[in-house]
Fold:
Amino acid sequence: GAVVSQHPSRVICKSGTSVKIECRSLDFQATTMFWYRQFPKQSLMLMATSNEGSKATYEQGVEKDKFLINHASLTLSTLTVTSAHPEDSSFYICSAMDSLGTDTQYFGPGTRLTVL
Amino acid sequence: AQSVTQPDIHITVSEGASLELRCNYSYGATPYLFWYVQSPGQGLQLLLKYFSGDTLVQGIKGFEAEFKRSQSSFNLRKPSVHWSDAAEYFCAVSFTGNQFYFGTGTSLTVIP
Structure:
């Protein structure tokens, strides 16, 4: 149980284009999902907290107009990187917290974004 | 400010040897404590967690961790390491059940 998927697992795009990453909780309902960014050999950096049906809460320094987050259902959150630039290249990981109050985050396998 | 420290950036052990990965946190109250493992290019997998109760917690893959309140520590242990345990290990704490704070990670190399 508690499986989280991400799609795509790897994406390469041209500078200036937008990329959408999906995060799904497959066998549980997630009222809260999180988006992280991870640079090589570093820890995870929380970008935003996404609650179903409401606006995401962004961490300081994260541009909400650049990283659009939508959490339209209890099993799906999307992160759209708008007008991507090479510096946006990174490993993006989502996590989901179930609605049963276990206070545990379950992580997706990550999405490797490369912006040319 | 809350913080999580993993003092060891990189550890190398021989296969079959015992392992201990250190994790310390700074905060007044007892947080929720987690250990995750990340294989290259993969997401994080939950190994174990501590919320309350018995301070020795058993996890998956033969791992265990012990919460020591007096030392603000939550060290991860395994009595006999396997080559497949080579990965990055992250300690995380949560004080609200929502926001997680991650350590910088410890990279484990296993020598045959």
Summary: Chain B touches chain A through 22 residues (CB under 8 Å).
